[in-house]
Structure formats: C-alpha cells, structure tokens
C-alpha cells in the first residue's frame, strides 16, 4: 500500500450512477437513541422536500431515490452509515446529522469519498470543509446577534449554562470574548453532561450569581429539567431571562409552555415567520404529518438544503461533486425563512437572524430580526474581538 | 525445639461472634498418626474450631502446626502450610471431572508457566489418590454426577493430593450407608498413619470403631479428653451429649 | 497412560483445529473476495469486537465475572492508538487539529509519549492491563463479586465515558478523535492499506483465539472454572482466588484494548459513545448468543450480532431496537448456553436450585455461582 | 394415606427414579433405604412436588395430587424435612418458625419448641449462623409446625447429637403410635428405620429392589438387599 | 449561609430522588436477587401514566394525586408481566436477569417512542407545587419538598411492610430458599408476583414524581438506572436501611462535588467514592453476615 508521502491520487473514484432515470441521495438521521427526539423531525422534513421535488419532476429530470440510514445517535454509526451511503449505495449527496460530533464523524468520510454532505443545524463554526454545505447558522448568524440583542436590552452580566460537549463549549468561548470586548461580566459558566436531569445545584449557582440574563446552550432533555428547576427556584423571564440557542418549537411542548413562557431563543426561522414560502411549507408539512406537528429551524434548514442542492445541480447540469461545488456560489432559494444564498468560499449560506420570545401558545414569536440575510463568517474574521479565534 | 513428628497444638483458642463465645478457651494437641475425634453437642463449637484452624473464623490464642503459627494468616496461606479440610456439605467442582478436581487440588504450588500449559500427563500423586479413594473408574466423569458418598471420597482424595499434613474432616460419613461408613473409616485409618487427623462426628459407632483418641467439646470448652472408652464412660459426656442410648449397633 | 492421554487430546482437538481453519479461510480468503471495500472494512470493525468478545468469554464464560465495563478497556486501547495517530498526522512537534481549535493549542504532557510508535504499541497492551490489574486486584481481593462486581463495572464504564466527554480539549469530548490520515505511516485513504488493516485484525483475532484455546486447555483454565463455581473452596486448596480472577480479568482487558486499538484505524473514529454503558453491554450480547463458555462462541456470536445489527438497521432503521431487545430476551432466557448449546453438549446444569445450595450460603454467593 | 405409584422422575433429561411404588400406611411408617445416589431424595422431592414425575401418580388419601403445587400439598397435610439442614439463612430461628406459623393459623410454636428445647437459646440468631445440628432441629420443628398428617423425612438425624437423635426417634414413634401421623422416612441408620417402620423399601439405582414388613427381624434381609 | 443551606437541601433532595428510584430495586434486586435493568423503564411508564392521567383529568393537582396510585398499579402490572413471562424461569441465575431485562428495557423504550412519539411530553405541575416554600433556613422548591416527603413515606411504608407484616417474612423466606418455602406452605409463586408488583409499583410512583422535576420521554428511566443500582449496592443488598443512607449520602456527596467542581466531575466523583467505599465495606453499608461459605 501507499505510504503517506507517496505520490498518487488517494481520493476514491466516485461511483455515483447517473445513467438511469433516477438518482440516489442519502438521508442519515438518528432514528434511535437519545437524539432521535430531534432528528426524527429533520428526517420528516427531508422526506417532504424529496417528495415535493419528485412531484415537480425531479432534479435534471431524474427522480430522487432516497436511501435512509439510522445514525443511532452515535458518531461512530454516523461515520459507518456515511461510508455505506457513499461507498456502497453511491449516493449523489448526503443530507443529515445534527450534533457536531455526528458532523465531525462524517467529515473525513465524505472527504475521503469525494462526496457532499448537507448539514442542517446551527453549530459552533470554525469549520469549512469543501465537502460539506452548512445550511444551519454559524455563530455570527445566531449567537452573535443574540448577544447583540441582550446587550441592547441592557444586559450587563451573563451566566452561561451549557451541555458538556463541543458546541456549547465553543459557543461559550466566543461569548466570553464578546463579553470581554463589550464590557459584559460573565458571572458563571456551568456545564452539565448531556441527559443530566438534576439542576438544583446549577440553579442555586445561577440564583446566587444574580446575572442580568442566562445564556443557555443546553441541549436535549436537560432543558426540561433546567427550566422546571428554574421556575421552581422562583426565577422567571421577567427578572432573569434565559436566551437559548437550542430550543425550537418541537421542544417547547415537552418542556412545558408554562415553564418557558417569556423566555428567549435565537434562530433563523420560527414557525410563525411570515413569508409565503413558510405558509406553504407549514401547510404541506401538516398535511403530510398531521395538524398537531410544528416546524422548527433545523427542519426548515434541512428542507431548504435539498432545494439548494437541486438548484446547484441544475446550475451545474451535473451531479458530480466538483461541478456542484463550482456551481454553488451565489445559488439562491426563497426559503421559508426568507431568501438564502450560498457563499461558495466557505460553503455556508447567508441567513436572516431572529430572536424570538416563547408565547403561551407554545410558538415562538419574533421580537427582533436582522432585516436582511447576514453573510456567513464561520471563523468570525469580520469581528475584531474574535481575533484569536479567527486564527484557527 | 526439635521434633520427630508433626503435631497440631492449640492453646487457649477463642472465637467470638458479637459477644457470643462459640469457642471459649480450647487447648489441645493432636499428634501425627493419632486419629482424633472431636465430638460434642450440637452448637458446641466443633465446626467453629475447625474454622479457626483453617483460617475461616477469626480467633485469638494460638494455633501452631510444627513451627508455623496459623492464626491471622489468610485461608489460602494456611492451606499451603499443609492444613486441609472437608466440609459438612460436600463441595467439589461439579463442572470439572474427577481427574481435574484432583489435579487442581494437587497444584497450589505450581508456577505460572506450569499453570498456563495443558496437563500432558496425570501426576503420580493424583493417580495414587484415584486408587486410594476408589474413584479410578470414574476419573473422566464430571464431579457433579457423583453420588453424595463418592463426592465425599473425592474430597478426601483432594486432601491427599494436596499433600495436607493436617486433615480436618467435618462429619465425613454423615448420610453414608453402613458399609460406606466402614470403607471411609478404613480409608481414614490408612491415610491417617503419617498425618494429623481431626474428625468431627456424631456417629458413635463410627467413632468407636476408628477413633484413637477423643476430645469432647461443650459450650465452647473442652469437657473431656482421652480414649474412647474413658470418654464414653464419663457421666458428664453422657449427660450433655450421649444420652442414654449411645449406640445403634450397626458398624460391627 | 501418558501416551494415551496425549493421543486422546489430539483426537479431541480435531474439531477445534477444524474450527480454526474454517474461521481462517472465511476471514482471510472468502470475505476479501466477496465483499466490497466498504463491507470489508465494516467486517474489520466487527472482527475487532470479536477480539473483545474472546476476552469476555474468558472472564465471564470461564471465570464467571460478568464484566459490564469492557468498554473502558476497549476505549483505553482505542484512545491510545488514536492519540498516536493524531500526533503522527500532526507531524513532529505538531498539535492535533482539534486541540488548536478548542484547546490552548498545546499538547498536554500525557499525550507526548504517544508520539513514539513503540510506546504506543506497548501502551495498547499495558494501559488496559495495568488499569485492569489495579482495579481487579482491589475488587477481587475484597471479594466483591457477583452482582456487586457487575454493577460496579457498569458504573466504571459510565464514569469513563463522562470523564472523556468532560475533557474536550484533550480527549475531543463527545466528538472523540477522528479524521486520521495515516496509520504508522501508511495512507489510510489507500484501498490497499485498508485491506491490509482487515487482514491485520483478522490475524489478530486468530491469535487471540489461539491464546484462548491454550488457556481453556491449560490447568489455569480448569482452575478458573473451579474458582467460578466454588471460589471459597479453592481457597482451602491453597490458591488465592483473587489472583486467579485478576489474571483472567487482565487478559480480557488486554484483548479489549487490542480490539480497540485495531478498531480505530479501521473505523476511523473513536468516541465516548463507543466506550460507555451501552456499548459495554452490547459487547456481551454476542458473547451470550454465541455461547459464553465455549471457545469460538463469543467471537462468532459477536460477528453475527454485529452483522445482524448493521443489516437489520439498514433494512428497518426504526425496528432494529425491537430486534435487539428480543434477541437479548430470547437467547438469555431460553438459550442460556447460547447457540453453541444447540449443537454441542450441554454443560452440566448447576445443581444449586435453592434447596441444594448450602444452607449457610446467602444470596450473593448464589449469584456468583450461577454464572 | 400417601401412595407413590410407578413414579418416574429425574433432572432434565436424566431419569433417576425408574418406576418406584411406595405406600405409606395410615398412621404408620414407611422406610426407604438405599445407598448414596440411589434416588431416595429424588423420590421424596417428587412426593412433595418439588420435582414433577415424567410418569406415574402420587395419591394422598386416594386423591391424585401429582399436578398439585407443593404449597397446596402442604396445606393438605404433607410436610417435608429436606436433607442437608436447610433453612432460611437470613431469617432468625424465630422467624424461621414464624413464617411457617403465618401460613398455618393453627400452628403453635411453643409446642414444637418443647420438643427441641435447645432451640430456645438461639431463637434470636440467624439460621445461617446456627450449627449444623441446630439447623437440623429447626428444620424438623418447621415441618411439625405445619400440623402434618404425613411427614416426609429425608435423613432427619444426620448431624444431630446422639441424645437428641434418641429423642427425635422417640417423638416420631410416639406421634405415629398415637395414630395422628404417617411418616415416609429415609434413613441411613437401618436399625432405627426398621424398628419404626411397618414397611420398608430398598431403592437401588432408582428401582425398588426389595420390600417387606418392617421390624427388627427384617434387618438381615435388608442388609443383604443393600449389599448388592 | 444561604449557599450552604440551599446546597444541603439540594443534596437531600437529590438523595430523595435517588431513594425513590432505588427503593423498588432494593426490593426486587435486594430481596429477590433480580437485577432488573427495566426498572428504569418502569419509572418511565409511571411518568407517562402521569401524562395520560393528566390528559384525561385536566386539573394538574387532581391528576398528580390520582397518578400516584395509578402509576403504582401500572408499574406493578408491568413488573408482574415481566416476572410471569421471563424472570420466573431465571431465579437460579440472577446475573442473567440483568441481560434479559436489558433487552426488555430496549423494547419498552422503543414502544414508548412509538406510542407517545420521540419528543418529550409535558406534564404540568400543579400550581401549589410550582415555586418556592420558605422553610426559614432556606427557600426550597415545593416540588422537591413534595418528593422528599413522598420518598420518606414510601420508605416508611415499605419498611413497615417488610419488618412487621408476615408478607415481609414470606418474601425473605422465598428468596432465601424457594423450595423450602414451598414445603412449609408458602406459595412462592404468588409471593414472587407480589414482591415484584410492589417493587415495580414503587418505580411507577417514582416516575410520577419525577415528572415534577425533569423530562417525560422514552429515555427518562435510563438516566436513573445506574445511579439507582449504585445506591442499592452501596447500601448493602437486601437492606432498606442501607439503601436510605446510601441514597442520601450519595445525594449529598454529588451536590457538594457539583457545587465545588462541575456536574460531570461530580458524577465521576460519586462513582469513585462508591468504588473506594466498597473497598472498605465490600458488602455495602450494612453487610449481611453468614457463616462459612461453600
Ligand atoms: N458467625 C456466627 N455468628 C454467631 N453465632 C455463630 C456463628 N457461627 C457459629 N455460631 C454459633 O456458635 C455455636 C457453635 O457452632 P458450631 O457450628 O461450631 O457448632 P458445632 O459444634 O459444629 O455443632 P454441630 O454438631 O451441630 O455441627 C453455635 O451456637 C452457633 O449458633
Ligand atoms: N439436581 C440434580 N441434577 C442432576 N442430577 C442429580 C441432581 N440431584 C441428584 N442427581 C443425581 O440423581 C441421583 C440420585 O440422587 P439422590 O439425591 O436422589 O440420591 P439419594 O438416594 O438421596 O442419595 P444420598 O443418600 O446420598 O442422599 C444421583 O446419581 C445424583 O447424581
Ligand atoms: N451543532 C450542534 N447543535 O450540536
Ligand atoms: Mg458442625
Ligand atoms: Mg439423599
């Protein structure tokens, strides 16, 4: 075999078969395990998008043939399934992943296979693989605007609470640099293991610290325990609001509207966003999956990602990775969240930022938006205070 | 101090459980070749005394075998000094064959390298023991398939290959039929000649037939000691232990 | 007499030798010629699990120690290897990518030794071995066993995973370590090298099976069974059961570590999800299904279960959990000897159902005895 | 009273008793004798229902109880003293008796303790900590406490000191002589067994090889039968 | 001082949660020797019971009060079903019960996912349990106080049942020697069922209570199972007393660690404490002494 320094083309030959009248794409979401709660919804909206595209005649005249795999909430399984989809099924592109660890696990696989992954969830930035399109928000499209909003509302001190993994830790690193530059005091920083369910100690610390607001990067089940405890401890949105970046519509029901009323979230999309595209999206989604279902930011980003890919392929008139990538820059879609545009340099997309308040109806209502799409800046190069991060 | 024969010497041995003295100052000496029977009422402390000797029960006083003090050593170290025992309920390794049982019993001193190799030949001591306890024909059978009496013999065989210098047997013939008891008694006599043997028993016929000397325990203390006839004639022993009918007249 | 015994051994060994030949042919000849590159590398991962299973067969099947924490040792071996590969990719004096990203940009001191390939190879065996020895000795010496041991080992797996997750800057946290480009200088994107990794894992499995065979046949193997069934009795023969058990536990840990170390270059990733409570129990299912106390059972069971898991989860993504649960229930409840029991001789049923147990013996000892 | 008719029973696939028939006379004693491993215990376990015969029947007062669960049999008057000094090790001696009394409202603990005065001293001790003989006495006491009409005894005097053995033998004799109790007895001490029994059965390799009237005069016949 | 007293309460509260989760195990594991990994899923079933009852009743307070007995019955019924179908044949190999019940746990979890959906559901707390109670020395969460009281009541009830009633003796006798228990007239089958019913029922109650604190979702029980077993093991198998001390001990330790370090390290710390503790007392706080083995 080849030593590393031997010359030779090591990337695998693409095996994508485009000769027939259909083309395969792969969905990889956790349908089991702890992340199934969230990722199942993404899977649903991806299916919806594929169906709509097929109903509309497909991509370049070819019907989409979807191969679904279960990532089982484990990075190793995501890597395995990505390997299967690219290596054995020879899909033209992959859609899915949620946690950053699932994305990091698939990254070397898609790079090695010369394939494409469309990743639909907001994340911690500091990454830009040529084989991944990031259709969720990077930090300057979610966290930074959220901080701006809090600062604008007069928050002089923050308490940071997060789940113990890469996204919250990196996000908090950014928040701390922002705080330093903007004269905001960080009164505490606490991490709980994913799935942690006892927040009495952390809540005690939060209460004693008495910050102006809490910035939460908690993920999953922990949110329920945290907000119940928060309320039981007598804390409320009025005296110490919590800004969350990982609670979307489908989590609100499980956490309990009563526990969340008045709290803040930062995303690029809410079910309540008022665009004609969103009206159609919500309507189609409910027609497909039932009236009680809600739509959320990652679902919308996943839904949009499929249309973005379609536009890129059609612009390139080819399914080949290199052609698609070359064609990607400037591709635009009128998405439910508003117009989004691909930035060919970093494979992210320009998105509108929003801060929302959770209402008693369980929906999230926009209280602030950026007005126009914000250009993606995964390394925060455009922000002076983030100097050190930008070197990464 | 020089000696020609091994002997087991207990002096002022006490075992206490939560304030209850199960063994309360027992002193006795058992010489090699002397088949010593230990009798006494239920709960007198016989088993506890055996436990103390073999390291299972924590005791005070002194228990010496040859030059070694046994007290305070862990069970397996005491076993390595040549003290072996059997249990009231036969306890052999049921998943292993008779041969394997004996081979394990013979091998506590083996080094790691020997242990990690397969057994290529049957050690002579094991072969001998198989004959002695009459299990040669059953060598490949799993010990779990043996009958109660055969298991007890296997246990004695394990003591033999273990090269135990002291054998402590807790009710070895309980549940055996008359001729099995006879056979076991003869076996003990044969192997006991160059060993120190303590037998705990309630079977008086068996004792009469095979005991060289007897120690009677009562309430944790030595009540009487001596030859079979002396002890049997002792009115105190009759009162607490034998009752009026001492004999069933079966081992004849 | 001696001659007869040896001759008998050879004859009795024939099926085993045939078994070895069968596995060798299947893994080294048939599989590579039939499977696609992706499937072969997947099988390579399963072979790594099978290596772990061989160790569990020893500790649990033979030694009665239900170890719910093999993920720890698998993880130790895997992380040692992954650290080396990360450092290797980073080049001399270099800093692995994730440390630059999330950490201080400096390599912690305890990573440094793993720059050396030799230290790494030694550590793959030594780290799990030493940890298992320290832990095993402490636990077994105090006669913690049966359910206590099982639950303690499970707690250790949980603790290990949490610890890894909490140290993001030095262990990669939930992301784990991945994105390797080379393995001891060999390019991991090269299909030929991937194939070689498969052969390496398969050969290792065969070596581990040989080692297990030798242990099964050895006097130590018999002693281990004796300790499993009657730990206290063994003490009275002059053995220290704690030592006997510790040896088996360490061997199982070392095998798990080797399995983990080989898993990393093949799978291309190791993360806390692969070492915690759930994967640790996952390791057991194959062993149970194959037949815990047999020689080939654990390894074949592990291969079969992993294969079934993958293909079932591909065909019925959301149904797999039911299959997995039902498999556990069915095999353990109704086929305690595993599939091996269907073909071969049944091991003698333990005769300790309640009444036959020693009356002085409390529940904990019965727990031990039953496995 | 209690009848075992052509009982075949064993463990798993292995049959241990191959068609044994034993009959316990009303208010009398039947003794089962035999070598170690002959299948005596196995037969008794089938009689109380701890093992299910593969064929054959078990009758109590002429009623077929072959399929009845053990605890139901006990409530119909069967009691069993297993071999090997068994007890509930974590329960105190007193609780060992009380648990029986709970299930049998008519039971009088004091009365059985009068039969085994030595137990009074150790009532507060856990059964698992008792000496072998103490445990055996406790086992017999438990069985008597169920107020049995048929008592099944598996080597009841094993491990008991001679003076108490004599008392137990006396108790058995007097209870049966009073006509209130029938006994199925397994004993290695052929002398006592034959003295007490109206009928004896010699079991060898799971088959009844010899049977006859009890009484000391049968001694030689039995020894001859057992010597095979 | 406020920090101290609120942390003290946090520890006690965590202990009471652990206790509630572990109490049923103390019975089924401690007394019967069954290592029931599906105990966590019985807890989950209790939580979903609270959800369903709330859906029917509406009023949060009434539904909570109703859910406690109903959750007990639901958990108990699941336990009995498990006992009757699988565990009954496994009493002589307790370690295997761990693996079988793990399989059952997987199935129950997936069932919950298919029945109630993957996302968490919301069980509303009654108004009188949302918010604070002033105990003088500290402001404590009313819901946590409620759980503390509930767990103490459960322990007292169970303790009384086992100690004083004949049932307790019967359970212990059955576990210690099944055949013998039968032969003295105890119906071991119904005793097993009843024990399992109570033990699993307690899991159901725990589930109802936990809806006040955390999420109600398919994986609710998994979060508690390892800790609950640790409590029983550290307490000494078969010892309700030990279980109580261990639960509160571990709760306080975790709360203290968590306050001074992080939640992750606290979890690891607690495990290390238990391992070290078992070095000192291998059989738990209250060890069960018996005579010589073999
Ligand atoms: N661990 C213990 N805790 C409390 N008491 C104990 C313990 N072990 C033994 N005893 C008590 O010590 C006394 C002596 O018991 P031991 O077993 O030595 O008697 P023994 O002479 O062997 O009687 P037997 O002939 O009935 O077997 C008994 O009263 C017993 O109950
Ligand atoms: N649980 C069991 N499983 C398999 N075989 C058994 C079991 N119990 C006993 N046996 C076998 O059944 C046969 C008869 O045993 P049993 O205990 O009935 O004999 P016994 O006549 O009572 O002997 P003893 O006088 O030693 O008590 C023996 O060969 C024994 O090995
Ligand atoms: N990228 C996230 N939310 O893990
Ligand atoms: Mg004794
Ligand atoms: Mg018998």
List the helices and strands and how they pair.
The complex is a heteropentamer of chains A (392), B (252), C (371), D (228) and E (294).
Chain B (H helix, E strand, L loop, with lengths): L6 E11 L2 E12 L3 E5 L6 H9 L5 E6 L2 E2 L5 H6 L2 E3 L12 H8 L6 H5 L7 H9 L15 H14 L4 E5 L7 H15 L3 E5 L3 H7 L2 E6 L2 E6 L1 H6 L1 H8 L10
Parallel strand pairs in B: 3-8, 3-9, 6-7, 7-8
Antiparallel strand pairs in B: 1-2, 1-4, 4-5, 9-10
Helix pairs in contact in B: 3-6, 5-6
Chain C lengths: L1 H33 L2 H26 L7 H21 L6 H6 L14 H25 L4 H21 L1 H4 L5 E2 L3 E2 L2 E2 L3 H27 L1 H11 L1 H5 L5 H27 L1 E2 L6 H14 L6 H19 L4 H15 L5 H4 L19 H7 L2
Helix pairs in contact in C: 1-8, 2-8, 2-11, 2-12, 2-13, 3-5, 3-11, 5-11, 8-9, 8-11, 9-11, 12-13
Chain E lengths: L1 H30 L7 H19 L2 H26 L8 H23 L15 E3 L4 E3 H23 L1 H11 L1 H6 L4 H23 L11 H14 L4 H21 L2 H18 L14
Antiparallel strand pairs in E: 1-2
Helix pairs in contact in E: 1-5, 1-8, 1-9, 1-10, 2-3, 2-4, 2-8, 3-8, 5-6, 5-8, 6-8, 9-10, 10-11
Care to describe what's here?
The complex is a heteropentamer of chains A (392), B (252), C (371), D (228) and E (294). Chain A contains 13 helices and 15 strands. With 392 residues, chain A is of the alpha/beta class. In chain A, the strands form three sheets. Chain A has a seven-stranded mixed sheet, sandwiched between helices. The two termini of chain A are 33 Å apart. In chain B, 35% of the residues lie in helices and 24% in strands. In chain B, helix 3 runs parallel beside helix 6. Chain B is globular, with a radius of gyration of 18 Å. Chain B starts with 6 loop residues before the first strand and ends in a 10-residue tail after the last helix. Residues 246-252 of chain B have low confidence and may be disordered. Chain E is mainly alpha-helical and 294 residues long. Chain E has eleven helices and two strands, in the order ααααββααααααα. Chain E has a two-stranded antiparallel ribbon with strand order 1-2. Chain E starts with a helix and ends in a 14-residue tail after the last helix. At the A-C interface, strand 2, helix 2, helix 3 and helix 5 of A face helix 2, helix 4, helix 6, strand 3 and helix 8 of C. The complex binds adenosine-5'-triphosphate (2 copies), urea (URE) and magnesium ion (2 copies).
């Amino acid at each position: 075999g080849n030593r590393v320094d031997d010359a030779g083309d090591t990337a695998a030959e693409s095996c994508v078969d485009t000769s027939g009248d259909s083309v395969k794409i792969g969905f990889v979401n956790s349908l089991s395990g702890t992340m199934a709660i969230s990722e199942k919804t993404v899977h649903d909206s991806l299916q919806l998008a594929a169906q709509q595209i097929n109903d509309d005649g497909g991509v370049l005249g070819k019907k989409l043939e979807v191969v679904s795999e279960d990532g089982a909430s484990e990075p190793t399984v995501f890597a395995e399934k990505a390997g299967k989809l690219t290596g054995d099924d020879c899909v033209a592109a992959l859609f899915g992943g949620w946690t950053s660890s699932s994305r990091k696990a698939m990254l070397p696989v898609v790079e090695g296979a010369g394939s494409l992954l469309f990743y639909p969830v907001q994340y911690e930035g500091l990454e830009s693989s040529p084989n991944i399109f990031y259709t969720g928000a990077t930090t300057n499209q979610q966290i930074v605007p959220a901080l701006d909003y809090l600062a604008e509302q007069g928050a002089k001190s923050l308490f940071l609470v997060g789940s113990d993994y890469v996204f919250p830790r990196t996000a908090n690193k950014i928040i701390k640099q922002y705080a330093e530059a903007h004269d905001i005091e960080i009164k505490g920083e606490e991490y709980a293991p994913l799935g942690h369910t006892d927040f009495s100690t952390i809540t005690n610390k939060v209460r004693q610290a008495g910050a102006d607001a809490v910035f939460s990067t908690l993920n999953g089940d922990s949110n329920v325990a945290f907000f119940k405890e928060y309320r039981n401890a007598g804390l409320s949105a009025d005296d110490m609001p919590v800004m969350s970046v990982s609670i979307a519509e489908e989590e609100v029901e499980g956490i309990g509207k009563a526990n969340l009323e008045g709290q803040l979230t930062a995303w690029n999309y809410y079910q309540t966003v008022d665009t004609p595209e969103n009206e159609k999206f919500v309507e189609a989604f409910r027609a497909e999956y039932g009236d009680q279902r809600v739509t959320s930011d990652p679902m919308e980003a996943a839904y949009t990602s499929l249309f973005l890919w379609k536009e890129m392929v059609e612009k390139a008139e080819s399914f080949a990775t290199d052609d698609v990538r070359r064609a990607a820059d400037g591709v635009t879609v009128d998405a439910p969240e508003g117009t989004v545009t691909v930035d060919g340099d970093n494979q992210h997309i320009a998105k509108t930022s929003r801060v929302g308040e959770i209402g008693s109806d369980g929906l999230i209502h926009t209280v602030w938006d950026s007005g126009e799409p914000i250009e993606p800046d995964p390394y925060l190069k455009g922000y002076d205070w983030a100097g050190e991060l930008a070197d990464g | 101090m020089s000696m020609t024969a091994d002997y087991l010497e207990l002096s002022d041995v006490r075992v206490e459980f939560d304030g209850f003295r199960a063994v309360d100052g027992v002193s006795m000496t058992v010489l090699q070749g002397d088949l010593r029977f230990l009798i006494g009422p239920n709960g007198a402390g016989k088993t506890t005394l055996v436990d103390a000797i073999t390291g299972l029960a924590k005791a005070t006083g002194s228990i010496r075998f040859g030059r070694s003090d046994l007290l305070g050593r862990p069970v397996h170290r005491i076993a390595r000094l040549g003290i072996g025992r059997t249990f009231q309920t036969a306890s052999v390794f049921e998943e292993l064959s008779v041969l394997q049982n004996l081979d394990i019993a013979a091998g506590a001193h083996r080094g790691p390298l020997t242990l990690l190799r397969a057994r290529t030949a049957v050690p002579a001591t094991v072969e001998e023991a198989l004959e002695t306890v009459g299990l040669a024909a059953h060598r490949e059978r799993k010990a779990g398939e043996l009958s109660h009496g055969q298991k007890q013999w296997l246990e004695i065989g394990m003591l033999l290959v273990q090269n135990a210098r002291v054998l402590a047997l807790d009710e070895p013939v309980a549940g055996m039929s008359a001729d099995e008891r006879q056979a076991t008694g003869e076996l003990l006599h044969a192997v006991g000649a160059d060993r120190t043997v303590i037998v705990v028993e309630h079977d008086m016929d068996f004792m009469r037939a095979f005991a060289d000397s007897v120690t009677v325990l009562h309430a944790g203390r030595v009540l009487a000691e001596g030859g079979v006839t002396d002890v049997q004639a002792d009115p105190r022993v009759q009162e607490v232990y034998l009752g009026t009918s001492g004999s069933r007249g079966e081992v004849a | 007499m001696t001659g007869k015994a040896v001759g008998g051994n050879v004859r009795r060994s024939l099926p085993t030798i045939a078994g070895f030949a069968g596995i060798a042919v299947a893994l080294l000849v048939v599989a590579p010629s039939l499977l696609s590159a992706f499937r072969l590398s997947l099988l390579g991962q399963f072979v790594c699990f099978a290596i772990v299973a061989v160790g569990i067969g020893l500790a649990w099947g033979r030694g009665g120690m239900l170890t719910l924490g093999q993920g720890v040792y698998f993880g130790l071996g895997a992380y040692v290897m992954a650290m080396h590969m990360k450092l290797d990719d980073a080049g001399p004096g270099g800093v692995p990518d994730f440390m630059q990203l999330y950490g201080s940009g400096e390599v912690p001191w305890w990573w440094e030794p793993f720059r050396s390939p030799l230290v790494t190879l030694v550590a793959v065996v030594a780290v799990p071995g030493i940890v298992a020895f320290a832990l095993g000795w402490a636990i077994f010496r105090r006669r913690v066993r049966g359910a206590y041991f099982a639950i303690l080992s499970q707690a250790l797996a949980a603790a290990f995973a949490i610890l890894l997750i909490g140290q993001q800057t030095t262990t990669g946290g939930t992301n784990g370590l991945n994105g390797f480009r080379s393995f001891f200088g060999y390019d991991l994107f090269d299909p030929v090298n991937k194939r070689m990794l498969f052969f390496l894992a398969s050969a290792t499995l065969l070596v581990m099976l040989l080692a297990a065979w030798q242990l099964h046949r050895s006097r130590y193997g018999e002693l281990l069974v004796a300790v499993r069934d009657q730990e206290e009795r063994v003490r009275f023969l002059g053995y220290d059961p704690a030592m006997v058990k510790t040896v088996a536990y360490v061997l199982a840990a070392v095998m798990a570590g080797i399995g983990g170390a080989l898993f990393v270059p093949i799978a291309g990733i190791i993360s806390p999800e692969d070492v915690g409570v759930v994967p640790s129990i996952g390791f057991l299912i194959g062993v149970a299904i194959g037949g815990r106390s047999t020689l080939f059972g654990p390894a074949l069971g592990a291969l079969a279960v992993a294969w079934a898991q993958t293909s079932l989860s591909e065909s019925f993504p959301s149904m797999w959990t039911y299959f997995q649960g039902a498999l556990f229930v069915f095999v353990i409840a109704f086929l305690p000897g595993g599939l091996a029991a269907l073909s071969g001789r049944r091991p003698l049923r333990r005769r300790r159902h309640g009444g036959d147990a020693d009356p002085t013996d409390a529940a904990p000892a019965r727990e031990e005895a039953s496995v | 009273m209690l009848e075992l008719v052509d009982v075949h029973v064993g463990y798993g696939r292995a049959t241990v008793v191959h068609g044994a028939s034993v009959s316990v006379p009303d208010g009398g004693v039947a003794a089962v004798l035999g070598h170690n491993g002959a299948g005596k215990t196995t037969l008794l376990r089938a009689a109380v229902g701890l093992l299910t015969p593969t064929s054959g029947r078990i009758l109590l007062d002429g009623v077929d109880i072959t399929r009845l669960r053990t605890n139901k049999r006990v409530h119909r008057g069967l009691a069993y003293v297993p071999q090997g000094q068994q007890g509930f090790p974590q329960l105190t001696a007193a609780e060992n008796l009380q648990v029986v009394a709970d299930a049998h409202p008519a039971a009088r603990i004091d009365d059985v303790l009068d039969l085994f005065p030595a137990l009074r001293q150790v009532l507060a001790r856990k059964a698992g900590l008792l000496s072998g003989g103490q445990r055996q006495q406790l086992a017999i006491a438990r069985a008597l406490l169920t107020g049995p009409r048929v008592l099944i005894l598996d080597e009841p005097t094993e491990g008991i000191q001679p003076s108490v053995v004599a008392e137990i033998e006396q108790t058995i004799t007097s209870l049966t002589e009073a006509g209130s109790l029938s006994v199925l007895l397994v004993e290695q001490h052929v002398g006592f067994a034959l003295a007490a029994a109206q009928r004896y059965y010699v079991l060898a390799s799971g088959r009844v090889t010899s049977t006859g009237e009890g009484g000391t005069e049968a001694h030689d016949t039995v020894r001859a039968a057992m010597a095979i | 001082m406020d920090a101290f007293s609120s942390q003290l309460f946090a520890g006690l509260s965590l202990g009471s949660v652990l206790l509630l989760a572990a109490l049923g195990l103390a019975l089924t594991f401690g007394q019967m020797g069954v290592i029931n990994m599906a105990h966590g899923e019985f807890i989950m079933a209790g939580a979903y019971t609270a959800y369903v009852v709330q859906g029917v009743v509406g009023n949060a307070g009434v539904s909570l009060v109703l859910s406690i007995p109903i959750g007990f019955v639901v958990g108990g019924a699941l336990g009995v079903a498990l006992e009757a179908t699988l565990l009954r044949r496994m009493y002589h190999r307790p370690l295997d019960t761990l693996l079988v019940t793990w399989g059952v746990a997987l199935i129950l979890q997936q069932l919950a996912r298919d029945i109630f959906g993957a996302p968490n559901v919301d069980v509303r707390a009654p108004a009188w349990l949302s918010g604070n109670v002033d105990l003088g020395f500290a402001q404590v969460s009313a819901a946590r106080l409620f759980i503390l009281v509930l767990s103490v009541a459960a322990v007292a009830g169970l303790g009384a049942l086992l100690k004083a009633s004949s049932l307790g003796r019967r359970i212990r006798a059955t576990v210690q020697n099944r055949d013998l228990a039968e032969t003295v007239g105890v119906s071991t089958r119904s005793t097993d069922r009843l024990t399992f019913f109570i033990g699993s029922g307690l899991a159901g109650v725990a589930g109802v209570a936990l809806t006040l604190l955390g999420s109600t979702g398919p994986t609710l029980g998994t979060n508690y199972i390892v800790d609950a077993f640790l409590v029983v093991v550290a307490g000494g198998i078969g010892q309700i007393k030990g279980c109580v001390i261990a639960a509160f001990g571990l709760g306080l330790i975790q709360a203290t660690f968590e306050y001074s370090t992080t939640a992750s390290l606290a979890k690891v710390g607690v495990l290390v404490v238990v391992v070290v503790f078992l070095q000192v007392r291998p059989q738990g706080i209250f060890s069960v002494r018996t005579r010589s083995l073999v």
